[in-house]
Amino acid sequence: MRGVVVLFVAGLSSIAAADEPNLAAAQMRFASADGFSMTVTPAATEVELDVNVVVIEGTVRQRFRNLSSHFVEATWIQALPADATVHDFEVRIGERRLVGELEEGAVIKSSYFDRPVENHHANRFSTSVAHVAPGEWVSVELRYSQTVSYQDGVFALKFPLATQSKSAQPRAGICTSVAETGPEACSAANPTLDVSVRINPGLNVKRLDSATHNIAVAYAGATLEVALQTGPLPNDRDFELRWEPEPASAPNATLMTDATEVPVH
Question: Does pLDDT of 208 surpass 90?
Answer without folding.
Answer: yes
